[in-house]
Amino acid sequence: MFFIPCCIALDMIEHTFQMLPSVGKKKETALWESGVRDWDEFLSSESVAGIKSKDRCDAIVMQAAELLDDEETSLLGDIIPRGEHWRMFDRFKNDAAYLDIETDGLSRDSLVTVVTVHRKKGTTTLTEGIDLDAGTLAEALEGAKILVTFNGSCFDVPVLRNSFPEVDFDLPHYDLRFASRKVGYRGGLKPLEIEMGITREDEIEGVDGAMAVRLWHQWERHQDKDALDILTEYNRADTVNLETIAERIYKRLVTDYAGYRW
After folding, report:
1. What is the pLDDT along the chain (262 residues), one digit of tens a residue?
2. Most buried of the four, 8, 141, 168, 224, by CB within 10 Å?
3. Secondary structure in 3-state letters for the chain
4. Cα–Cα distance between 227 and 114 in angstroms, integer?
5. What is the pTM of this model?
């Protein structure tokens, strides 16, 4: 079973120092172990072991703190390494946009057939030829502070950028494919759902990516409404389930740092 700890999620973003020059995970851990555990403690220290240009680093930390206070997540995401964007999730999860797409192929120039954007305020599913365009997609993402996907950094977002260059996808990206690897998981989305005890409706239980393409062709060529309904529900399930997975993976990630007693 995929172990889910019972713990209170922490706001991890102010504990990272990996935006500083020459600071990776190893040096960041050394900073925590030395007692410098967050941005305030860094700024209040006259000197920090292992940090040569303290004034320069202070300026970077202060910039990050200001961007965080102003909720300028896009700019903050530019200075925080992509692999650490997950740390913003707890702070901005109420403004997260969970996203998943279906296409008619696997290349970046594939036709985007269905897109679902799940938010706290509701779930929007857009379909090619019906209501999917740059305007409706931008509206579904409006106000989002962080993007959550499974493998979206490699597929969904590049495909959407190619199809809808007018839409701004410049958000911090909590990609659950790579975040789950940090806690030992190596599989795809569906097996992860099974391990977490997340179930799907019977009519979409056996649907996968290849079948999603066939369902689209069935709709496109024969106007098979049942096929489109199944495809839509499959895509919505892919997207809505990301919220539960994101919460649980985040708690696992936080647990890995629990020994530092923030």
Report:
1. 433 334 444 689 999 999 999 999 999 999 999 999 999 999 999 999 999 899 999 999 999 999 999 999 999 999 999 999 999 999 999 999 999 999 998 888 999 999 999 999 999 999 999 999 999 999 999 999 999 999 999 999 999 999 999 999 999 999 999 999 999 998 899 999 999 999 999 999 889 999 999 999 999 999 999 999 999 999 999 999 999 999 999 999 998 776 655 5
2. 141
3. CCCCCCCCCCCCHHHCCCCCCCCCHHHHHHHHHCCCCCHHHHHHCCCCCCCCCHHHHHHHHHHHHHHHHCCCHHHHHHHCCHHHHHHHHHHHHHHEEEEEEEECCCCCCCCEEEEEEEECCEEEEEECCCCCCHHHHHHHHCCCCEEEECCCCCCHHHHHHHHCCCCCCCCCEEEHHHHHHHCCCCCCHHHHHHHCCCCCCHHHCCCCHHHHHHHHHHHHHHCCHHHHHHHHHHHHHHHHHHHHHHHHHHHHHHHHCHHHCC
4. 13
5. 0.93
What tokens does 39 get?
A: 């941005």
